[in-house]
Design a protein that fits this description.
Elements (H helix, E strand, L loop, with lengths): L3 H6 L9 H18 L6 H11 L8 E2 L3 E3 L5 E3 L4 E2 L3 E4 L4 E3 L4 E2 L4 E3 L1 E2 L4 H4 L5 E2 L2 E3 L4 E2 L4 E2 L4 E2 L4 E2 L4 E2 L7 E4 L4 E5 L2
Parallel strand pairs: 1-4, 2-5, 3-6, 4-7, 5-8, 6-11, 7-12, 8-13, 11-14, 12-15, 13-16, 15-17
Antiparallel strand pairs: 9-10, 17-18
Helix pairs in contact: 2-3
């Protein structure tokens, strides 16, 4: 029989209040608390906390606190990824972000999906759909990226957009819902 964590990692419905998952979220929140309350000039300790919080990410990932996530280990970043102030990543499924991608302030990336049936939703079951963002992407401030979305390399997502569908490579896209505005050179 699969554990709730195994169900979560395989994209099945799971109970998030399971003891193992609750303990892992608490551990992430402790690290986030440390990160978000460090003196801004304490770069070495910031790097150490990020390494613990995001063990599957490049050491060259920069986070401008405050930063929030569920688990951390489901976030995979390439070299030179930059998170501006107040980013929130609900990483119960994998969030992959390619190298040199810039995320503006208040960017939110969601992988969580809840049942549409009200009775099933009341049981607190959830599952996740991975999000993938390519390399050299620029995500403007206050962008929301929904579960299952893929954004191609070198694209730009305009500030305030809500991305509910895949965005191809090398385009500028914006709006709610986010749509391609033009191709980039």
């Amino acid at each position: 029989m699969k554990s709730e964590k195994e169900k979560m990692l395989s994209g099945e419905y799971f109970h998030p209040f399971d003891k193992e998952l609750s303990t892992e979220r608490l551990q992430a929140r402790k690290l986030l608390h440390e990160l978000n309350h460090l003196s801004p000039d304490n770069f070495q300790q910031q790097k150490e906390i990020i390494k613990k919080l995001l063990p599957n990410s490049s050491k060259a990932t920069f986070i401008q606190p405050p930063f929030y996530c569920d688990y951390g280990y489901n976030i995979k970043t390439g070299k030179g990824v930059f998170f501006n102030f107040n980013c929130t990543l609900l990483d119960l499924a994998t969030i992959e972000i390619g190298e040199k991608t810039l995320l503006g302030p208040n960017v939110q990336i969601y992988t969580a999906i809840h049942p549409t049936n009200a009775e099933k939703r009341a049981t607190h079951l959830e599952k996740g759909k991975p999000v993938s963002i390519g390399s050299n992407v620029w995500i403007g401030g206050n962008v929301t990226i929904c579960p299952g979305v893929k954004i191609g390399n070198k694209s730009i997502i305009g500030a305030g957009s809500v991305v509910i569908k895949d965005i191809p490579a090398n385009v500028m896209a914006a709006g709610n819902p986010c749509k391609v505005i033009k191709e980039l050179d």
